[in-house]
Amino acid sequence: MLVAALLTVMIWLPFNWRAPVAVTRIKRIKAPTQVVWQAAAFAAGKKPWHPHIDRIDQIGENHIRLEHSMTKPCGNSADWSFDMEIDRYDEGEGFRACRTGLDGEPANDRLLTVEMQLERAGNDTIVKWAESWGPRSTAGRFMAHADAAGMLTRLQSYCETGHACSRRAALSAGILSALSALVTVAAFAVLLGWPAAIVLVAILVLHELGHLVSFRLVGQPWGRIMFVPFIGGVAVSRLPHTRLKDDVFCALMGAGLSLLALIPAAAIMIFAPENAEPLGPVTAALFAIAALAGAVNLLNLLPIFPMDGGRVMRAILQSVAPKHVCHIMLVVAGAMGIAAIYWHNAILAALAVIAFFQSHRLGEARAGVERMGPAAITTALAGYLALSLAHGGALYTYWGYITA
Prior knowledge:
Blueprint (H helix, E strand, L loop, with lengths): L1 H15 L2 E11 L3 H8 L4 E2 L8 E6 L2 E9 L5 E14 L3 E9 L2 E2 L4 E11 L2 E13 L1 H24 L4 H27 L1 H24 L6 E5 L3 E5 L7 H14 L5 H9 L9 H20 L7 H13 L4 H19 L2 H14 L14 H25 L1 H4 L1
Antiparallel strand pairs: 1-9, 2-3, 3-4, 4-5, 5-6, 6-7, 6-8, 8-9, 10-11
């Protein structure tokens, strides 16, 4: 019971404890203040340097719309927009804007205000950028800070060279993710030893990369990855999905890309001769990696929120029984709790407790979000079951090589 309580607290704090976020970043740009102002001011026109804004349109007195369009790999485009009200605009010095809507919907608790102030420093410009957000989890706070840092890096390169350098912004975000991964490796090494910790975090990286790739495939910008000591990793998308089938696809792609970790072990099992000699250290290591990947991904596929499997179930319920999403997810969380008690499993017990509280927040999909039809639901279930069987089979087949 004590172990389950500790695990509950450890998982709850990084992913569920929510608090308002205030982001303040200061950047020195080697360019005149007027150049920086023309690039960064929230005025009508194109914004070639900004990672999330293509252009700004004036839609009324003191009201603007920030618009972005991204071409998917399949050739279709994904568009979104933010409506904001300018409540302070000092030409050449700074501005303050409050968000009033997202894609035509009323404002929610995401980005609330944006404020910029410029200060001359000889021939350079000091940019102070501030954002305020509503209550966010640790993952949301991480993304807010990382996005602000990346955005200012792109602004700096654009003002100094005339071209927005995506590589510098990506490098900045990558360094933050890498640092969180290293800290997580060190934390797991305390419990498992360095070799096992490195393998475990590598599996987590592969899983989260699957989510990142899926964000791009459905027309999202690249998201962010963060890792939490003793817990695992999380990939955060930048914007809400506009179709439930995209939500399902992105949730399943973590376990989907993780199938790569199972291929070497499966190939050895299939093609090794029947009279093969006892396993060598490399083969045994590949089998242990497959077992660990199976365990990590099967855990993520549990049909409780906020696990990936729970996101799939939520999307299906929002399509077929939108009025009962909360109730059904509560029942599933309760069933998971009973199973955890029966099996004396502290990890499942902790996840069941968190899922129970998380399920109270679930409900119908936002207005304007496209629900799934019968074909999409069937495909989602087939993909979910196939991945569960693949990773469950790997766990069952190779688990002995971890405990040996």
